[in-house]
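Summary for the steering committee. One of the milestones for this cycle was to obtain a three-dimensional model of the protein with NDP bound, which we needed before selecting residues for the alanine scan. The sequence and ligand used are listed below.
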Amino acid sequence: MSDTEHRTGSDTGGTPDLPVTRPVALISGGSRGIGRAVALRLAEEGYDISFCFRGDEQAAALLEKELTALGARAFAARVDVTDAEGVRGWVTRTEEEFGPVAVAVTSAGITRDKPLLMMSDTEWHEVLDTNLDGVYHVCRAVVYPMLKRRAGAIVTLASVSGLLGNAGQTNYAASKAGIVAFSRSLAKEVGRRGVRVNAVAPGLIDTDMSAVLGDGIKEEVAGRTALGRAGLAAEVADAVAYLASPRASYITGAVLPVDGGL
Ligand code: NDP
């Protein structure tokens, strides 16, 4: 953990330096792609960032450095979101070291695309365990402290696949449809106690995840959007940052497509 303290004080030395409290954002799958863009965006908006990743330590270390350069405290935790206890420990440590989590974003996700007839049980379960159980584990861990404080915003990453369905993605689409229903239901449970829950449903976004599709498929999908192109991770991050912010104070249980008009 990089633990840069943020202090202000008079250059004359007459006033003692005082710690400045920054709100804390927790992001699953923050080391690459959309989660990374969200981390940078929220750091620019003044948040300290705690993010988890599964394996890519180099990417996590690089992001930690960039966040620190933006003036944020950064905590990179190697935690697999399928591990409920690991996620609980990460959230607890974040709150102990950085303070209450104001915003939680669930971006950790994987694909194992295949027609259903060729899909193995492992490919089905890996995707559901990571994408859907992972969201459950993160939200279960952050929501109680948020409810106690009667404040908090959760943004989940769904997908247009979960809204429209997509051949070759029965496992992924089912997990993302589950995230939509989960987010809307949780929003109804916790809204009266000051916690908002919204989902963002990206279309085709240029990240490592979509790189495996190959240029042909990407061009074909991009061609079906109103804007005629794939989106950028930063464009999804803007939507996430908006839903997480007080500017969205009357928005909860919403699913915001960020898909270029697919
Ligand atoms: P990337 O593959 O670029 O990044 C995935 C991130 O999730 C990485 O930081 C990865 O960490 C982390 N991660 C994966 N599995 C786990 C796990 N079990 N535990 C903890 N962290 C994990 O994906 P994107 O940024 O493209 O996708 C982000 C989210 O947006 C996903 O939920 C995805 O389904 C959704 N989405 C993406 C779209 C796209 O076109 N890119 C479209 C629609 C939705 P590590 O590197 O260590 O493995």
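Key point for the committee: The radius of gyration is 19 Å.
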